[in-house]
Amino acid sequence: MHGFPGMPAPLARVVETLSGLPGIGPKTALRLGLSLLRKPASEVEEMAAALVDLHRALGFCERCGCFAEQGHCSMCDNVRRERSVICVVEQPVDVLMLERSGHFSGLYHVLHGRLSPVDGVGPDDLRLAALDARVADGGVRELILATSATVDGEATAHFIARRYQGAGVKVSRIARGVPEGGELEYMDEFTLGRALDQRVAWETSP
Amino acid sequence: MAEVRDAALLLRRIPHGDTSLIIHLLTREHGRVALMARGARRASSPFRARLAPLCELRAAWRPGRTGMGTLTDVERGALWLPEARAWEGLKLLSLAEKLFREGDGAGFDDVRAALALMAARPRGPGLTAAAWLLLARQGWVGDLDACWQCGARADALAWRRDGLCCPACGAGLEVSPGLRRGMAGYLQSPRVALPQADARTWRRMVEDLLRQHGLGISLEED
Question: Which of A42, B5, B28, B81 is a good FRET partner for A129, with 20 to 30 A between their CA atoms?
Answer without folding.
Answer: B81
